Amino acid sequence: MIGTANKTFQILKKYDFKFKKSLGQNFLIDNNILNRIVNGANIDKETGVIEIGPGIGSLTEVIAQKAKKVVSFEIDSRLLPILAETLADYNNIEIINEDILKVDVDKIIKEKFANCEKIMVVANLPYYITTPILTHLLENTKLIDGYVVMMQKEVANRLNAKVGTKDYNSLTILLNYYTNVEYLFTVPKKVFVPAPNVESAVVKILTKKEKEIEVDTNTFFNFVRSCFTQRRKTLMNNLIASSGKDKKELLISACKDVNIDSQRRSETLTLEEFNKLHKELQKVNIVK
Ligand code: SAM
Description:
CATH class of the largest domain: Alpha Beta
Helix content: 25-40%
Largest sheet: 7 strands, mixed
CATH superfamily of the largest domain: Vaccinia Virus protein VP39
Number of helices: 12
Mean pLDDT: 96
Order of helices and strands: HEHEHEHEHEHEHHEEEHHHH
CATH architecture of the largest domain: 3-Layer(aba) Sandwich
Bound molecules: S-adenosylmethionine
Structural class: alpha/beta
Number of domains: 2
């Protein structure tokens, strides 16, 4: 097993590997946590798995033992010779040296997982880009069935935050539209090397087969994000900041028309309310 403290330190020493903090490199050194992550994903021999950031391969190995195939994206080319050694015994793993944010995921899934019945993302995410990764995957492919991913606990709490709470934001709305989120478990700092500054959590995110409402996905989430730019300000202040002061009267009347008090804060609006408002503002040509 790669994911033990002894084995990890041995590999790091052999390759004289120096962690890059800027790439969110915190490697897992606890077998129990690795197994709990993979068990949470209900992977079987018909499942294709996308992993983001294999590091030295500790999670990749456990996934590969259960899955049909693993395609793993690693941005740091210094890890490639290490992975070639640590994962040499597995013939169902493909490592791709690319930035996940630049990958055409839809294309990759069609190319690499043609014979898989289910596609899951399983990863200990690089924390500095947790939100961009989730946004990138959710907005750019409909082919992923679910995600079991580790992230900062603080971000995990946002994913299924209740409307009106401080954790509720545009990421909550994105997740709520596309998926159902389940908080699986909290992970202490000490199971990583180096230990991160914050606590972590593993969440299970399952793609909804049917949506409760339909939104114009090309523009809706950009609109929602613009409403959260200045969290402490009211919805109206955020709308003015993105549309211009000259639109104030139009904005006030659009909010009235859909029965939304423009003095509310954005975190008090439900997905349905954002959708109503977005449609109304599209109608009067204030937003795209
Ligand atoms: N999976 C390993 C583990 O659990 O021990 C390593 C996880 S570590 C938190 C995150 C990994 O993501 C690192 O290996 C890092 O180099 C990689 N990474 C960072 N940014 C990335 C990006 N944009 N695309 C792909 N991989 C990235």
